[in-house]
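Researcher: Quick test of sequence recovery. Tokens follow.
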């Protein structure tokens, strides 16, 4: 008998089931907190990642390259050997693919594999080693290729969610997620130049992710994954991506001209190695080319005295108030201008300071 109640076992069991939760509550205690809000938040975030991956992954490709090598130094026969692999994404439905320059550099043959497993031969139509970007074209592209919407890297902020899709270690169409962990980083390009304004993320980026897209929570392209910072060569929580605004500037030029077009002054500068060897600050002008803006503005290169001794030419110290400490500084300034712009050049000629206006022209 339970609390003076009699009856069948089934009746007592039903009553016990009904009142047991009340017996377990102590005075002042309340029921367990609702978890609906937390579960709803987690589900929304997961649903967002799932939706982005579903829409974007068909635009992500796997790039493999081969090179030619002699079978032996005593033979003229050559064989194709694997060179490397990486990721990329479809830029235009006509079959244009964007990837990293270092993925396809020095390759003799390139093959692009789509998410459905179909594979196509591709050709390199443009490369920018100074930005680690390259554009490939599928020789026989299929129809209905998926492309990615483009975002704006100036709208990024630390803490924003990002998603990386690629082929790490050859494992096709892999998704990793994280946040923007820093902005405005600098990394070294294959050409040796510094790439500025790079996006840093903690989304896992491993070998094979290079060239793949970095996306925001709207599924928009915000960067091209290009490098990891890790002594072991595997992801250690710091990855880098070239910002999409740089991609939007560079890729159309690679498609149209095969390279980045910069305006020029029409001069030759001494190498950084030569400049460092003689302890010279600024950029010494070796020579100016007749008929081009530098010569017309009055800049001078190296000359010989009446005795045959070499005389150092003008030394460019700054352009538009920005110091020119090396070639990288100079090229970065040139990239911010177009043909027809007038720049202010601050130079030294012996002990005299010069301020010259130079109208830039198109590169040849």
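Model:
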């Amino acid at each position: 008998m339970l609390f003076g109640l009699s009856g069948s076992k089934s009746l007592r069991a039903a009553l016990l089931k009904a009142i047991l939760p009340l017996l377990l509550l102590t005075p002042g205690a309340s029921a367990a907190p609702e978890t609906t809000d937390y579960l709803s938040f987690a589900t929304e975030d997961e649903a967002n990642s799932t939706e982005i991956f579903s829409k974007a992954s068909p635009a992500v490709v796997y790039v493999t390259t081969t090179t030619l090598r002699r079978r032996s130094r005593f033979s003229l026969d050559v064989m194709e050997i694997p060179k490397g692999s990486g990721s990329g994404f479809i830029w235009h439905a006509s079959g244009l693919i964007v990837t990293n320059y270092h993925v396809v550099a020095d390759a003799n043959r390139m093959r692009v594999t789509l998410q459905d497993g179909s594979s196509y031969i591709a050709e390199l139509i443009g490369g920018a080693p100074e930005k680690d970007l390259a554009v490939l074209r599928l020789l026989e592209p299929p129809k209905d290729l998926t492309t990615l919407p483009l975002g704006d890297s100036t709208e990024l902020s630390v803490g924003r969610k990002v998603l990386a899709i690629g082929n790490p270690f050859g494992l096709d169409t892999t998704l990793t997620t994280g946040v923007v962990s820093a902005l405005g980083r600098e990394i070294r390009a294959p050409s040796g130049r510094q790439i500025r304004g790079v996006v840093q993320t903690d989304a896992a980026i491993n070998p094979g992710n290079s060239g793949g897209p970095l996306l925001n929570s709207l599924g928009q392209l915000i960067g091209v994954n290009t490098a990891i910072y890790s002594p072991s060569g595997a992801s250690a929580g710091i990855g880098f991506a070239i910002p999409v605004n740089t991609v939007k500037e560079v890729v159309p030029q690679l498609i149209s001209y095969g390279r980045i077009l910069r305006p020029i002054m029409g001069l030759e500068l001494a190498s950084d190695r030569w400049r460092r060897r003689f302890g010279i600050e600024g950029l010494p002008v070796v020579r100016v080319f007749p008929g081009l803006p530098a010569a017309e503005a009055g800049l001078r290169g190296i000359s010989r005295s009446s005795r045959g001794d070499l005389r150092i030419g003008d030394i460019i110290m700054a352009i538009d108030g920005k110091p020119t400490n090396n070639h990288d500084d100079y090229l970065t300034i040139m990239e911010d201008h177009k043909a027809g712009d007038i720049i202010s050049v601050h130079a030294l000629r012996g002990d005299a300071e010069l301020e010259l206006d130079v109208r830039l022209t198109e590169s040849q």
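The radius of gyration is 31 Å.
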